Amino acid sequence: MALVWGERVAETTTTTGTGPFFLLGNVTGYQEFSNIMAADDMCFGTIEALDSNGFPSGDWVSGILTYNNDNSVTVTAILDSSAGGSAVAFAAGAKRVILAASASLFSDLGVGFFPIVDRDLATPPGSPTNGQVYIVAGSPTGAWTGHAGHIAAWLGTWVFTVPAEGMAIWIADEDLFLVYNGSAWAQPVPEATNSEIWAGSATVRYLSPAKLYTSSAPVALTSRATITPDGNNGFNFTLTLAHNATLANPSNFKTGQSGVIVITQDGTGSRTMAYGTNWKFPGGAPVLSTAAGTVDLLSYYVVSGSLIVASLTKAYSS
Which of 1, 60, 197, 213 has the fewest CB within 10 Å, making it most exposed? Predict the structure, then answer.
C-alpha cells in the first residue's frame, strides 16, 4: 500500500451510489489507474458525474481513492464534495474518475511544505487532526504496521508515503530539519561527536552549545609509570597519581590545542612527575605538591608538534 501520483490518469465509470466505482477504461488521451497502481494503493482523486455531452453535471466528490484488485476504486476519505463534504450517492449515468490532488489537501497541509508533528510514535494517535503528518517510528503497530520510516498523513484515513532520497521535512516538536539520505532521516549537516571534535577529523559538522561543553569535560588518565595523554580522547584530563610517573610526549595533540590536567596526589602522597621533552615550563620542570590529596593544575598550549608550553599552579587543596 502506497500513496501514488501519476500524470494524466482518468477513466470512466457508470457505477451508481457511493461505490466502489468499477473502472471501464481510460478517457481518450489519459492512462488507466491500473498502469500506475496496485491493489490497496491510494491516490488523491475526483469522481464527477457527466451529462449526455460529457460535461460535468453537478455531482462530484474529491478525496482519497483506494484501488482495489477488481479494478475498482473506493472513496476512502472525503476531502470535499458537492454535498458539502459528505458522501455523494451518484445517480445512473456516466462519470469520470480522475487522479488529482484537491485544494483541500494543500489547505490542510500547507502549500509546498508539510511540517511533521512527531517522529517518535510507533502507534497512531487516537484522535489526529485532519492534515497532521507523522514519521512512523520503528516497530509500528495498528494502522501503521509495516510503515516504519514512512510519512503518515491523516486525511480522514491514514495515507502513507515512502520517502525518497533528498526529501526534506521539519520536525515541529524538536525544531529540527531533516533530509532523507536514501536509508534514514538525518540532519543535512550533522552534529559533531566528541570524538570528531577531539580528533579534528570532520569538516562538515555543526557544534551545538551542549556539545561544546561535553567535549570539554575532563577525561580520566590512568596512573602508571609512563602516562601518555591522547588528544583524540579529550582536551582536559584528570589524574590521580598513584605512581612516580613520567608525563610522556602526548599523542594526537594538535597545534593550537589547549587544556588542563588536574593532578591529585593519592592517599599516600609524595608522588613525583617527570616530563617528556616536548613539555616546556618557565624556569624548568616543576615539582608537584607532595601532601596526600593535594590538587595541582597543569595548564598547556600546543605550539607545534614538538613544543607544548605549560605551567603548574599548586596546592589547590590538601
Answer: 213
